[in-house]
Write a structure and sequence with these properties.
With 148 residues, the chain is mainly alpha-helical. Helix content is 50%, strand content 4%. The protein is built from five helices and two strands. The protein has a two-stranded antiparallel sheet with strand order 1-2. A hairpin with a 5-residue loop joins strand 1 and strand 2.
Length: 148
């Protein structure tokens, strides 16, 4: 009698290996799957940096944003960081394979990069003094939460 998987749905192949006969997932996984779109962004014979160009582009822009921020230009630096994350969301949406920029499912990656990028951009526009974006309800919320 052939060995069975954890649910008892297995059938031996010609080589003697088990082949699943059900579409249900097994109870125990033995390996992790690559995220959707996690393949190389360039051909396999290309050098390593070329294969991971989407991740390097986003990371490079974030590094430049951090450098600009460290050079005492807070608003432009943080805006650049937010734009880099928004660019990562766009790359993840448009490209079929983005290499290491793919962490989880396509939807989760896009939502995470977009929400974080948008939040950082909005916060950069509200930096004091002289904010470019004024939201009066935030002052009311702050007053309400800190009022005694």
């Amino acid at each position: 009698m052939p060995a069975e998987d954890t649910r008892g749905h297995a059938e031996p192949t010609v080589q003697g290996r088990l082949r699943r006969t059900t579409r249900r997932f097994p109870l125990f996984t033995r390996d992790t799957a690559r995220p959707e779109g996690g393949g190389r962004a360039a051909a396999g014979d290309a050098p390593a940096p070329a294969r991971q160009w989407p991740m390097l582009a986003v990371t490079g822009l974030v590094a430049v944003g951090l450098l600009v921020t460290a050079l005492d230009a807070l608003r432009p630096g943080t805006l650049l960081i937010g734009v880099a994350l928004l660019g990562g969301a766009v790359l993840r949406w448009l490209l079929p394979d983005v290499g290491m920029l793919a962490v989880r499912s396509r939807f989760t990656d896009i939502a995470t990069y977009a929400v974080l990028g948008l939040a950082i951009c909005l916060l950069a526009l509200m930096i004091q003094p002289d904010p470019l974006l004024k939201m009066p309800f935030l002052k009311d919320i702050l007053h309400f939460t800190l009022a005694k």
